[in-house]
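Here is the promised in-class demo. Please do not try to memorize the tokens; focus on the logic of going from shape to residues.
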């Protein structure tokens, strides 16, 4: 009853929920530490033409992989391979990978330093506000993805800095439509379900401006 009159406690409720979520996921964190960085470096040689040297991409169409949580990269590669995440290029790239190669590649990228060469654009005030504060029904992105977009390796929450606005908007729409429903997507789906196109574009512009 009290929360209906005060906006702040509502926001507090989301934060508390997220902290609970964080400690839960941190507990289950070390799941994919079975990969070999050295073997992963070999297996990832063919990926550099698109994803860049050591996973730092210079092309907005290809997401950077450097510094992404191993658990996140492994889940995405498995989903491309098994047809759960649809993308013509990546399903071809992942089709021949064994589970062990996926673990190795994920360990390799997780160990690389993420570098953002040139953040794009001037960002968005609405996007920055949503990112840091959230709103009713939309938890603050910063709570999980870090205020500067570094993500959270132990929890498996991906880094967002260095991703292009187009790619971020496409990812958010994938969660909103439910097309991306594998891995830990159940965390993103309810958040994205409530976002308008305008909010998605604003968030994407803010994220693309992070350096
Ligand atoms: C010809 C270009 C190309 C090559 C080569 C390529 N990728 Fe990709 N990769 C892409 C594109 C485009 C996307 C975005 C696909 C989408 O929208 O789902 C992507 C997405 C990914 C993602 C998901 C990233 C995220 O943030 O969710 C991972 C992981 C990935 N690639 C790993 C690899 C690995 C490992 C290899 C080498 C075995 C590889 N890629 C080779 C183009 C490429
Ligand atoms: C409670 C934690 C949490 C919050 C809050 C959260 N995210 Fe996420 N986010 C995740 C997780 C976990 C994933 C990986 C989901 C998966 O496995 O596909 C993710 C994935 C993403 C991706 C996909 C990245 C890629 O490389 O394709 C984007 C973009 C994203 N989140 C943006 C946001 C934005 C914008 C907000 C705020 C409106 C937000 N997230 C709030 C946990 C969170």
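The designed amino acids, position by position:
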């Amino acid at each position: 009853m009290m929360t209906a009159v005060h906006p702040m406690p509502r926001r507090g409720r989301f934060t508390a929920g997220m902290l609970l979520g964080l400690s839960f996921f941190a507990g289950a964190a070390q799941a994919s530490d079975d990969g070999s960085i050295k073997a992963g470096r070999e297996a990832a040689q063919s990926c550099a033409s698109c994803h860049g040297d050591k996973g730092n991409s210079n092309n907005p169409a290809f997401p950077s992989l450097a510094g992404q949580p191993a658990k996140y990269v492994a889940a995405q590669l498995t989903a491309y391979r098994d047809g759960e995440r649809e993308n013509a290029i990546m399903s071809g790239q992942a089709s021949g990978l064994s589970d062990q190669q996926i673990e190795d590649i994920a360990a390799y990228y997780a160990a690389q330093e993420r570098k953002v060469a040139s953040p794009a654009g001037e960002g968005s005030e609405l996007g920055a506000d949503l990112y840091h504060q959230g709103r009713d029904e939309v938890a603050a992105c910063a709570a999980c993805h870090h205020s500067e977009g570094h993500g959270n390796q132990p929890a498996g929450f991906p880094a967002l800095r260095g991703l292009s606005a187009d790619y971020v908007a496409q990812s958010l729409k994938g969660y909103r439509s439910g097309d991306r429903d594998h891995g830990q997507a159940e965390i993103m789906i309810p958040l994205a379900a409530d976002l308008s196109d305008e909010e998605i574009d604003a968030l994407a512009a803010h994220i693309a401006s992070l350096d």
